[in-house]
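seq:
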Amino acid sequence: MGQWLQICGSDDPVSRAIDENALEGEQVRLNVYDVMDDGRLALANELFRHVGLGAFHAAVDVHGVEWSFGHAEGSATGIFSCRPRGNTSAGRFRECVALGPTALSTADVLQCIRGMEAEWPGDSYDVI
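struct:
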């Protein structure tokens, strides 16, 4: 794993040192959810994730907003937002992975998202 790929809130001294010496900028995190809020699926994901398998939903958390892609009817965009770790429709929150800082401002991130909305229609979402 690269130096920016670490579990959020880790007590590991190396991770803390990396965080403390990180480039200035807003931290970007990947919030990972078990697709369904079901203990059996969570257990299966725990067992299979070590070999690269499982049923997960992921969302990007930046500037205090979590951004995701999912199904929407018609030509509506599939990009949506919620409070970080608050996407209960995605399933059960599993973990947060720190991706590192971004130099983009909140306005820059919003402009980027707006630019992707037409390219990511909700009716193109496929769970597989």
